[in-house]
Specification:
The structure holds two protein chains of two kinds. By secondary structure, chain A is an all-alpha fold. Chain A has helices spanning about 1-25, 30-55, 60-80, 80-100, 100-115, 120-125, 125-150, 150-180, 180-225, 230-240, 245-260, 265-290, 300-340. Chain B starts with 5 loop residues before the first helix and ends with a helix. Classes of the chains: A mainly alpha, B alpha+beta.
Chain lengths: ~350, ~180
Amino acid sequence: MDLTVGKFLRFFIFVFILALLGWLLYELSTIITILIIAALIAYILDPIASYLEAKGISRTFATSIIFIFVFLIFALLIWLFIPGLLDQLIDLQSSVSLQSEDNIILSVENFIKNNIRILNVDALNLREKINSTLDLLAYELVSILGNIISILPAILIVPFIVFFLLKDGREMKKQFIHYIPNRYFEMSLNVLHKIDRQLGSYIRGQFIEASVVALLSILALWLLDVKYFTVIGVFAGLANMIPYVGPVAGAIPAIAVTWLNGGTVPEILYIVIAFAIVQLIDNILLQPMVLSRSVNLHPLIIVLAILIGGQFFGLLGMLLAVPAAGVLKVTSRELYNGVRKFRLL
Amino acid sequence: MDDDTMWGNVFRKDSKEHESIYSVLSKIPIFKDLTKRELRAIERILHRRNYKEGEVIFNEGDPGVGMYIIEKGRINIILGKEQKLLAVLSDTEFFGEIALLSETPRTAGAISVMPTQILGFFQSDLFGLLETNPGMGNKILIRLAQMIADRLRYSNLENQQLKLKIAKFEENVSKKKVS
């Protein structure tokens, strides 16, 4: 009897702690997001700080140099791209939701009437379906804009956290390891190192690949005189993080925008060729260098991750779902391997 | 600990402790070629651990992750289920250095026989040094290679002597059989 009561009490306490943890995570989700973003940035910048430190510069000075450099790059990027990016986002959102709805529907209906006569245009009820899809797209674009504005205070806090993580991160990690009991010390150190090595190359690789693909796409679309080239280029860079569908998903908005603005077939063909060249550069030059595909997620996991990301965090969630799944896979795999090797299971 | 970090200030060590680590490190063969500044950098990446009497540091068969330097105390190196004593190590001696190069299972276990303070230097730290500071990493690597080469030479000599002994023994046995 006592045993059953004791078991029940333990179970109750366990569920209570789990619920408390879940509630805390939910309540602190904004702060946790800020911390994760700051940690990711610090992670990307850490090798540069270590390199400078090895050259004889103190960690504080190395961190300061990186900060000044990153600040200058950001200032340049903001000066060059942000006004255009915001204008393009607002313009794209208003044109999608208001002005060109009828044009889109008419052109799609005409295309079907002329080329796919088997389909009955009236029976398809295109107007209603396209209207609801465009409303959703416009809502997503506005929500991204809204998110950017609502996280402005966070954007100001993130650099502060990044500075201290970059400067004192190693010491914090050492202190954390210091408190691990002797029995688990070697295993924890081994697992932490392996996770660090794999995640480091994965996250840095994804960042470099997405940035280069975005920049190349912006350049190609600007040369081809495609409208909203900055927004589409940034989207192509982010979409590139999704294996299989990403590269295609990046090209679709460019083709759609050109087509809806009365683009000709050769113009669309040039866009396809431009994206194919960007992909070729990514596959032949970038990927072998950055090793970001080393995580090898199963296609089913990718689809599930995208669906879950989309369900919880919308378009942005879909884009970041694959790297997040990669991080989870590496962490759990190394943790499991470590525990098994040290015969703790 | 790095003096210029916030955490360095929170967990500041006194100068005696600093000198003690420094004097221990300068006696370790693999750190012999390092300058004072380089030794300070090593000190920053070392992990200090305290073990009670009878506490296991690692078991035979565990994956090797790095070497340990005894700062204060005594360690028994043991082999097999019967815990056959292979060596007793004390202040400024070190063990497990092969694990700096390969993650093969530990060939023996280590257990503390009195309250012991050790410094851990791990493979990940050495590889990190080779990436960020190749000059310093190579100094350690060359010393490590020399140490292992010396040991290999000694083992080869021992092997040759044993082979000679076995050959002599076999010769004696065959002579006895003939007679």
